[in-house]
Amino acid sequence: MAIPDSKKVLIAGASIAGPTLAFWLAKYGFTVTVVERSKTLRLGGQNIDVNGPAKQIAQKMRIEAAIRAANTGEVGLQLIGQNEQAIASFPKEGSISGTQELEILRGDLVNILYEATKQNVEYRFGDSITNLEQHPNEVTVTFSSGKKETFQLVVAADGVRSSTRRLVFGDEPKFEYLGLYTAYLTIPRIKTDTNWWRWYTATDRRIVMLRPDNQGTMRASVAFLESDEAYEKLSLAEQKSVLKSKLVGAGWEADRISNALDDSVDVYFDKIGQIKAPSWSSGRMAMIGDAAYCPTPLTGKGTTLAMVGAYLLAGELSQHERHQDAFVAYEQRMRPYVEEVQKLPPGVPWLVYPRTRFGVSVLNTVAGIIASKPVQKLFSLFTSTKTEDESKAEGIVLPDYVYTHAAESS
Ligand SMILES: Cc1cc2nc3c(=O)[nH]c(=O)nc-3n(C[C@H](O)[C@H](O)[C@H](O)COP(=O)(O)OP(=O)(O)OC[C@H]3O[C@@H](n4cnc5c(N)ncnc54)[C@H](O)[C@@H]3O)c2cc1C
């Protein structure tokens, strides 16, 4: 067997996609370096779920038990009405629920992936790629630290705003703004908090949510529609001030979140949009995760796509001697799935962000009907036949790759 041309791999981004790719590549015998711009792991963010194909990959990685142990304890989703009381409940075990079996804080998952890889992968924090020169057999990488080094392959896993992607593809991949801004922050837990994910729709196209975590605090989020991409490059203080202005008069727990903003150290505030790229590779460089195909939190599938893309790219690289063939195979397997996930139901997000009190009350009435026992029962008729293979049910195949050439040549 010939020696593959893709032995030494550099990955940009140590979140979900990057370390998952690193795990599998290291397992297949590649030499892997992960460069992360931040000085430490970025552990912020909210509850995410690891289900379907992501759960299967977690099982293959033997990290399912660690994910289970870090469960947030969320018991289901509750909609809060204009009277500030729960008006519809979707328990975790019900036929329709936003809460999944494996709910975990994003930061906990990042940590688990890091712990599972740090022995076999070199992590470099506080650095990033500033230049890439592709040659026939290698890529010369310049880092912001000034260091220069050659690798056989470079993979961008540095998120929706990936600067590594820009170095290679320029402005060709499109960021499709969905007319929505979202902010996440951690706030102190108080006696009246519960273990429900509580979702409150306010007037003027605003949503406020509170979710429990496993750390004795609460994860708050604030989302609002904004037709223009109005808030670019704001300082943290400016972001807080925009959020405070958006929370005025919203009702329910909005004032509490507004007050908590003053002391918050982990506000994550960004516009929401999907990345659509005509190709996920160029020469010796490829992309995975949000950098390549961010679906947005509206789909609930950001983590799933990141883990599936990483698994497939590593697997294909282990099977093909030429990286070009691996990149083609990865894209062929992954693109139909990404396209399906990125399709949003008609009217989303506009329909769920009403402007008037009347609009809010119509939405809440519909939600109440859906949460009612007869409708839940009806839904369970269609959803209770759980298939053995959750990935197939989602239309993605996860081959059991048996690595071949990479390990032989190490
Ligand atoms: C701090 C944070 C909080 C988040 N919170 C939520 C949330 O609450 N809910 C939700 O659904 N999604 C959240 N996300 C997004 C979610 O993690 C992704 O949608 C999904 O998991 C796919 O992950 P990813 O690894 O592709 O990208 P991301 O999770 O976005 O990770 C990208 C990583 O690359 C690093 N990076 C950025 N630029 C560079 C560079 N030039 N060089 C090297 N490294 C770089 C970033 O610091 C980050 O660690 C959050 C992301 C971040 C970074």
TrEMBL record:
Q: From which residue to which does the signal peptide run?
A: none
Which residue windows are transmembrane per the record?
none
Keyword Oxidoreductase present in the record's keywords: the answer is yes
Ranges of residues in domain FAD-binding? 8-341
One GO molecular-function entry: FAD binding
Pfam families linked: FAD_binding_3
Does the record's keyword annotation contain Isomerase? no
The record ties this protein, via InterPro entries, to: FAD-bd (IPR002938), FAD/NAD-bd_sf (IPR036188), FAD_aromatic-hydroxylase (IPR051704)
Q: What name has this protein been given in UniProt?
A: FAD-dependent monooxygenase
Q: What organism does the UniProt record list as the source?
A: Spirosoma validum
